[in-house]
Design a protein that fits this description.
127 residues, alpha+beta, Pantoate--beta-alanine Ligase, Chain: A,domain 2, 4-stranded antiparallel β-sheet, 1 helix, 4 strands, 39% helix, 36% strand, rod-shaped
Length: 127
């Protein structure tokens, strides 16, 4: 009697099941990695946009720094920049002899305007 060379049906089914589980896990890991990469890219671009807006505001006259909203197209995406400006009279209870404004610049994607990707705070003085 000859011994059969090959795998039984049960061995093949177990191998396919193991391969399917590994492939599913790798697919989920790859999808999560891509999502994280996209989120980090958006966050980095939002940071650059916020920093650029703060630099622009610092180069404008002090009296023209006000609350506002601006749309911008950058890196083939549509962004929304929201500025909140408020006067600061004191730091930690210590009065400030200068005019100081606190700038809060928030940047979000246009399709998700209510959840900013980045918010930066800066201070400018009228010196």
């Amino acid at each position: 009697m000859k011994k059969a060379n090959g795998f039984t049906l049960l061995e093949v089914m177990i191998a396919i099941t193991i391969f399917a589980l590994i492939a599913t896990t790798l697919s989920k890991v790859a999808a999560t990695t891509v999502d994280n990469h996209i989120h980090l890219e958006h966050k980095l671009l939002a940071t650059w946009i916020a920093e650029n807006d703060i630099i622009e505001l610092r180069s404008t006259p002090f009296s023209s720094i006000t609350n506002g909203k601006k749309d911008l197209t950058y890196a083939d995406r549509k962004w929304v920049i929201q500025r909140a400006v408020k006067p600061v009279k004191e730091f930690s209870g210590i009065p400030i002899p200068l005019e100081v404004k606190q700038l809060d610049v928030s940047v979000s994607l246009e399709e998700n305007e209510d959840s900013p990707l980045q918010t930066l705070t800066a201070f400018v003085t009228n010196d």
